[in-house]
Every structure is written in structure tokens, then in C-alpha cells.
UniProtKB/TrEMBL annotation:
Belongs to the phytoene/squalene synthase family. InterPro entries: Isoprenoid_synthase_dom_sf (IPR008949), Squ/phyt_synthse (IPR002060), Squalene/phytoene_synthase_CS (IPR019845), Trans_IPPS_bact-type (IPR044843), Trans_IPPS_HH (IPR033904). It comes from Aquilegia coerulea. The keyword Nucleotidyltransferase does not apply. Its EC number is 2.5.1.32. This is 15-cis-phytoene synthase. The lineage of its organism: Eukaryota, Viridiplantae, Streptophyta, Embryophyta, Tracheophyta. GO terms for molecular function: 15-cis-phytoene synthase activity; geranylgeranyl diphosphate synthase activity; squalene synthase [NAD(P)H] activity. GO terms for biological process: carotenoid biosynthetic process.
Amino acid sequence: MKLMTAVVKFVQSMPRLFTWVGILSLTPPHPLFNLHLTLPLNSYIIYSIPLFSQCLLGTLLMTQERRKAIWAIYVWCRRTDELVDGPNASHITPMALDRWESRLEDLFQGRPYDMLDAALSDTVGKFPVDIQPFKDMIEGMRLDLKKSRYKNFDELYLYCYYVAGTVGLMSVPVMGIAPESQATTESVYNAALSLGIANQLTNILRDVGEDARRGRVYLPQDELAQAGLSDEDIFAGKVTDKWRNFMKNQIKRARMFFDEAEKGVTQLSSASRWPVWASLLLYRQILDEIEANDYDSFTKRAYVSKANKITALPLAYARSLIGPSKISSKVL
Ligand SMILES: CC(C)=CCC/C(C)=C/CC/C(C)=C/CC/C(C)=C/[C@@H]1[C@@H](COP(=O)(O)OP(=O)(O)O)[C@]1(C)CC/C=C(\C)CC/C=C(\C)CCC=C(C)C
Ligand SMILES: Nc1ncnc2c1ncn2[C@@H]1O[C@H](COP(=O)(O)OP(=O)(O)OP(=O)(O)O)[C@@H](O)[C@H]1O
Ligand SMILES: [Mn+2]
């Protein structure tokens, strides 16, 4: 049995090995590790889909209890996203999402449908997480099924809230606010929301070409028009001066959301700050990479090099040493 466990553990760590080389030996165990032997293969795949690196990193250093909880939330989010983005996406109907939502309600009441739901049931029993952001994420998936254009930034903001801002709101109750923090709870949630929005805006700016090939334009239509651009320009995928100017403004706005998020990280409990800083610094660098690619998000996927990722870690660590007591409470 011990050998079996060791083998499974090794296999589990494989995909992470690919992404995180040296750091990988530090990656957390699976939230369901004890149950894992009985998981069906497809659940394993969901866990190991080229993993959202920040989440891996994101759970380093946290207490075991918190790590499991963040992983459970991550897995639920990933599965929700896979419904509309994954291989079965073309079969997903609003009814399937309704069913997914009723499963969510059941698991919140302690009636999980499968092992992965059980991990989240366990989490909601241990941490004061609210069901609303989870429901809102499903709402975001409904929106994704029926909508492929966004009139203005208000509409895009709402979409970003549904699919990513919600993740921030789900995570704060697990990460915890530092006991010495004088910031209002509201301001910390606000920062968490901003980090989700900033990440999603960055994701959209990075994937313009990929999304266009799926017939989707997430960029605000009115702002495109103001810049003298239209959907046709997006589909044509040419980097012109108009496009560069448009992107400069979009990047500027995404950075403002990252700045807003920064104010909240300091207020988190000390063990949670490092992973969140790392995730923030890494994702924000994608914006720098878009610039370095001369704004070509049509044919290039901006990514942060391994070297930059690794240097971000000590930087994040240094920042995480600053807690609420060292900054004036007037800042917030
Ligand atoms: C430490 C840490 C980062 C914890 C969060 C872990 C967690 C629960 C992640 C779930 C992410 C997830 C799978 C969301 C589903 C929807 C989705 C895919 C959103 C996009 C992520 C990027 O993924 P990817 O590049 O794979 O996108 P494609 O689908 O391939 O296009 C998002 C851009 C959004 C992710 C949002 C966050 C990670 C928000 C993080 C905010 C916090 C942890 C709050 C921190 C607290 C303060 C006070 C700042
Ligand atoms: N080198 C990198 N630099 C910056 N961000 C990265 C890098 N590698 C991964 N990421 C971020 O982590 C996310 C996860 O990347 P990965 O390629 O492992 O899977 P994924 O994007 O979730 O896959 P899929 O697109 O199939 O859902 C990426 O989408 C990206 O946002
Ligand atoms: Mn993805």
C-alpha cells in the first residue's frame, strides 16, 4: 500500500514537474490525496490539466487545511470552466449548467455528488465561504454560452466579475485577513475582486487571437470603435498603430486593477501573502510580455519565462514580509 501511495504521489507530481522544475518539490499534496486511489481517470485529468501555475504556487506555504481548501475551490472552478471551455463544451446547454448549480447547492448542504464535490463540501464546513460567488461563476458560464460581444467596459466588467472576480471572493475566507489588520473587510474583498478582474483582463488581452478564432471578441465594442477599429480588424489580426494605441489603453486599465489589488495583499494573513504576491507579480508580467511582443496578441501567446518566474518568487517573498502593522492604516 505504501509503495502504491508513493507511486501515485510521484505520478501526481509529474505535470507540476513540467511547469515548475525546482520549485516543484515544494508543491502541495492533493486535497483529496487520501481518496485519490479511488478517483476515476477523468478526475485525475482535470487535476492535471496543464495546471494553473499560480494555484500550485498559490498554495505553497499555507497551512495544510488552507491548502486543501484552496485546491478544492480551484478544482471546482476548473471544472466549471471546463464545462464551457473543455472538450465537451459543444454539448453544454443552459440546462446542464442548471444541473451543475443544483449540485453546488447540494454540496453546500453537505450532500456532495462525487469525490471532488466532497472536497468542497469539506471546505465549506471548515471555512466561512459563501455560496454566492460560486453561483455567480456559473452565471458567467451561462453568459459565455450566449454572448460573444461586449458593448462597453461595464458589460465586460460584469463578465470578468462572474468568471474571475468571484475567485477572489471565494478565496479570502480561506486565506484569512491578518488579525492585526485595521483595514475594513470590505476593502480586502474589494482588492481580491480587483485581482480577479485584473487577471481576467490580462487573460483577454493575451488571448485576443485565440478567442477571435472561436468567434469571440471580449474587447469593449465602443472602445474599439473609438480607436477606429472593428471586429474585422480583430479577425484580420494585423498589428497597426491604431491597434497599438488601443492596446496601450487596455493594458493601462488592467494595471490599475493590479494596483488596486496590491493594497489588499498586505492585509491578508501572513502565510497567504507570499502565494498571492507571487501570483499577482507573475500574472501582471504577462502585460509586459504583450508589450514586448509589440502588442501582437493575434499570433503570439505572451508568456513569462521560467527565469522571470523564478526571480518573481523571492521578490514576492520579500513583499510578503510586510504586513498590516508596518504600513499606516490611513493608506486604506
Ligand atoms: C493564491 C491563488 C492565486 C489562489 C487562487 C486559486 C484558485 C481558486 C484559482 C481558480 C482559478 C480558476 C480555474 C478559475 C476559473 C475561471 C478562469 C479560467 C479564470 C481565469 C484564470 C486564468 O486561467 P487560464 O489562464 O487557465 O485561463 P484560460 O481559461 O486558459 O483562458 C483567470 C484569469 C482568473 C483567475 C482569478 C484569480 C486567480 C483570482 C485570484 C484572487 C485571489 C486569490 C484573491 C487574493 C486576495 C487579495 C486581497 C488580493
Ligand atoms: N510561462 C508562463 N508565464 C505566465 N503565465 C503562465 C505561464 N505558464 C502558465 N501561465 C499561466 O498559467 C495558466 C496555466 O497555464 P497552462 O498552460 O498550464 O494551462 P491552461 O492555460 O490552464 O490550459 P488551457 O488553456 O488548456 O486551459 C496559463 O493560462 C497562464 O495564465
Ligand atoms: Mn486555461
